[in-house]
Design brief:
mainly alpha
């Protein structure tokens, strides 16, 4: 799309994904007619971007499923030599923080649906802060592991712990960037509404939440 900036491309992607829910409010300052005129000629490109996002999400799932399969196989094949993995206690605190973050995000979206933007911003900031605290807690979990003498190369169980938590944390950091985008973007001048942007960001956030629960269960049951 000649003349379109990277930020505008991102907004078009979000708009295309959320476009099916027609009940969402339009971007501030834009009327429905102008929005329809703007979306019309750009729909084919937006669909391609949306397809790329779906492929990316599926790729993430497939990658972690491949890693989980390798973990299960090696755990079964080396059951006699497998060193039990004792998860640091802070992991459970981190999990609670992530769950609370998802809850705060949903409350924020409900306030936004009632046009209470002020409360939305506060709750969204709470969700973002809890996400940052989760990542900080994961680094502390790594530190506890190191102090206990477990490194990436210590054994297979500790290797998978670092791999799972590290890759999940990296993807979650991307989610935090999306939350910050929703927090600080001036939607009065955007081509996408705040409600649509918040909805798409929440989908990714809840996906990362569910992925972490899966990885945690895998590590705990495989110890």
């Amino acid at each position: 799309m000649p003349g379109t900036t990277i930020v505008e491309d991102i907004e078009l992607i979000i708009e295309d994904i959320g476009g099916g829910g027609g009940k969402l409010p339009p971007a501030g300052g834009d009327d429905g007619g102008d929005s329809d005129k703007r979306r019309g000629p750009q729909r084919p490109s937006s669909r391609r971007y949306a397809t790329a996002i779906v492929i990316a999400i599926v790729s993430i799932v497939m990658f972690f499923m491949a890693m989980a399969s390798a973990y299960i196989y090696l755990r079964a094949a080396n059951s006699n030599r497998w060193v039990p993995l004792h998860l640091p206690w802070i992991i459970w605190v981190n999990t609670a923080l992530l769950l609370l973050s998802s809850g705060a995000m949903e409350f924020a979206r409900r306030r936004l649906a009632r046009a209470d933007v002020a409360q939305f911003r506060k709750l969204w900031a709470v969700a973002t802060t809890l996400g940052v605290l989760f990542l900080t807690g994961q680094l502390l979990a790594w530190r506890q592991f190191v102090l206990a003498g477990f490194y990436v190369s210590s054994n297979q169980a500790s290797s998978f712990f670092y791999i799972f938590t590290g890759l999940h944390g990296l993807h979650l950091f991307g989610g935090i960037c999306a939350l910050l985008y929703v927090s600080f973007r001036k939607f009065e001048k955007a081509k996408v509404s705040r409600a649509v942007a918040a909805e798409v960001a929440s989908y990714y956030w809840h996906f990362m939440d569910g992925l972490w629960i899966f990885l945690l269960a895998l590590l705990y049951l495989g110890k």
